[in-house]
Amino acid sequence: MISLEEYKKALGPLVQKLSESEILKAREIQDKMAEILFYSWLEEVNKKNN
């Protein structure tokens, strides 16, 4: 997971419109989505290699 400061920088101007709790929740959701995508990709790679 990237640092909170890096995440806020990545949000750009949107960060000004969100509360701290909204930012943290969005970061958590995006981290979970990335994990799901990574494990889906890994599963596909393992299927191709077996």
Task: Give a summary of the structure in a few sentences.
With 50 residues, this protein is mainly α.
Number of helical runs? 2
Question: What is the oligomer described by this structure?
Answer: single chain
Terminal residue distance: 30 Å
Q: Give the helix proportion (percent range).
A: over 70%
Percent of sequence in beta strands: under 5%
Q: What's the pLDDT, averaged over the residues?
A: 95
Overall structural class, as computed from helix and strand content, comes to mainly alpha
What is the H/E string? Answer: HH
Question: So what's the overall shape?
Answer: elongated
Radius of gyration: 15 Å
**Largest beta-sheet characterization:** none
Spans of at least 5 consecutive residues with low confidence: none
In total, how many beta strands? 0
Tell me what you see in this structure:
The chain is mainly alpha-helical and 50 residues long. It is built from 2 helices and no strands. The termini are far apart.
Notable features of this structure?
50 residues, mainly alpha, 76% helix
Topology readout:
Elements: H1 4-11, H2 20-49
